[in-house]
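FORM 12-B: Structure-to-Sequence Request
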């Protein structure tokens, strides 16, 4: 009889431990699947591609329709009101396209400068901290050279966009 009580006590303890571990798992928020990140990246790549194609098509259309004079192209010929109206609409479109490009570039910069677990561990061994989820330059000496190059290229590509 004593042996049965011990077995019951052991199985009750194991069940309680399982219940506790299950409740802690339920409290932690579920992480999004890796496919969600891949979809987001594909959408951003598609958005930047659409912006690029829009710019190329608009440039070719303007050149074919109006030509160039002395190396300067004309986007539209018409009355002052028509040109002014088109100018306003184009400025709105350009601003929307720039927001799309800036958002996409920022996403890729975050991925490029985000340290991996191995890079974080290496920095911690040397009593250094790294920024996780930030776009700071502090991580560049700890991440791989190729990712640092991608980050700097994207950063430099933003300068002309911000000057528009």
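FORM 12-B RESPONSE
SEQUENCE OUT:
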């Amino acid at each position: 009889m004593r042996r049965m009580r011990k077995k019951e006590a052991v199985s009750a303890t194991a069940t309680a431990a399982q219940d506790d571990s299950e409740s802690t798992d339920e409290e932690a928020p579920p992480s999004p699947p890796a496919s969600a990140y891949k979809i987001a990246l594909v959408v951003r790549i598609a958005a930047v591609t659409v912006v690029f194609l829009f710019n190329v098509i608009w440039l070719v259309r303007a050149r074919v329709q109006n030509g160039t004079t002395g190396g300067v192209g004309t986007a539209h010929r018409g009355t002052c009101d028509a040109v002014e109206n088109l100018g306003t609409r184009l400025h709105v479109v350009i601003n929307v396209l720039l927001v799309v490009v800036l958002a996409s570039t920022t996403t890729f910069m975050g991925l490029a400068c985000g340290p991996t677990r191995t890079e974080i561990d290496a920095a911690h061994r040397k009593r250094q901290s790294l920024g996780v989820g930030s776009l700071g330059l502090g991580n560049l000496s700890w991440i791989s050279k190729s990712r640092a190059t991608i980050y700097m290229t994207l950063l430099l590509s933003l300068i002309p966009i911000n000057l528009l």
